[in-house]
Amino acid sequence: MHRNGVYSESYIVNMIGFINTKNDSIYQNVEIVTVFYDTGSFSSVTEQVRTVGYTDEVARGHYDANKENPIMGMYPTVLNPKSRGEILLRSKDPKAKPLIYPHYFSDEKGEDLETFLEAIRFVEQLVATEEFRKHEPQLVRFEIPICDGLAFRSDDYWRCAIKQMTSTIYHPVGTCAMGPENDGKAVVDPRLRLYGVKNVRVVDASIMPTIISAHTNAPSMMIGHKAGR
Question: Name one Pfam family in it (predicted).
Answer without folding.
Answer: GMC_oxred_C
